[in-house]
Zinc-binding protein
Amino acid sequence: MKHILIAASLLTCLLFTGACQKQTTPPPAAGPKKLVVVTTLFPLYDFVRAIGGDKVDVRLLLPPGVEAHSFEPKPEDALRTAKADLFIFTNSYMEPWAVSFVKGLNTGTITLVDSSAGVAFQKAGVEEEKEEHGHEGDHHHGGGMDPHIWLDFGNAQIMVANIAAGLEAKDPANREYYRANADAYRGELKKLDGEYKAGLSSCGKKSFLHGGHYAFGYLANRYGLQYESASAVNADAEPTPAKLMALVRQVRAKGLKYVFSEELLSPRVSEMIAKESGASVLLLHGAHNISKSDFEHGVTFLALMRSNLASLKTGLECK
């Protein structure tokens, strides 16, 4: 009996000690709170990823693999965005719904950042939307301005500065961190710009033709190239038969060996023009969005643009 009492006493002591240890052991220390940032398009997502580093939790509103021009947020997007600290959009021509979308959340805590502040916009080509089949009045890019500002790397540097300013305002304690990362990334964009200027300086052709919507006007303008697209800015528009035949004649007259297609859209029009003119098809990535596979593999804006440069050098017969 004496042994049983001693064992029971020891067991009680161990149990009590264990209980006390469970009660007094502090929970693991939580890491510093990250800024939650929601962006509309992939370039913004990648810019925030580079500038914010481990201080931010950046999320892409546009699902990977979805074409950007026809996207409008759904109720579930509103629920996810309501928890954000910052909402960063491209510009009012690309996302005319952005300001009202954020205001409609009624949180009062989300900082809205227009990445295009200070950018000089240019017209979206010369063709009127009414000349395209089946989409008159559907064009949601107001004012006839080209929203694809990120494809001018000077504009991209302005966008990076605007994003950094938004992060600094929301999280002033990490101001120097954001500024240093933004400066470094702007340096990468300047380097990329130099690569384009050098790579496209000695080319057999100065014109490129694209079987998609008018997306590469800024890029063409920056490097002194002539650019023609099958459709206007609306990615859903279909070119008329007359437009297609005019493009085929242009390819033949200019002796172009390549026609460009774009990401996440059918290459059918580009292939049709190429077949009729004897040309081949190359991909030119507008970087509005990326595929699910590219997203999972961490593809970057800089990598996409360097791939574009390689395609342009081939298509323009550069030395």
Summary: Residues 202-316 form a domain with the Rossmann fold fold (CATH 3.40.50.1980). Residues 1-23, 127-140 have pLDDT under 50 and may be disordered.
